[in-house]
Amino acid sequence: MLIILLALVLARQLSRRITLPLTALTGTAREVARKGIPPENINIPSTYEVGVLASTFNTMFERLRES
Prior knowledge:
With 67 residues, the chain is mainly α. It has one domain (2-66). It has two helices and no strands. The chain has helices at residues 2-35, 49-66. The model has no long low-confidence stretch (mean pLDDT 88).
């Protein structure tokens, strides 16, 4: 029983580490669709795929601001 409880807690923590940054990126994408390029970059402290995606968004925003 304890192992199942521990597995559920770990699964929840892992899912939050993934979904919270994705929710932030989704919100930024919606804001861009409504208002245009945001004046600031996305700040998501992650070095995994979500962090790479946020960095790519930032690069795209910087290039669009320059044009």
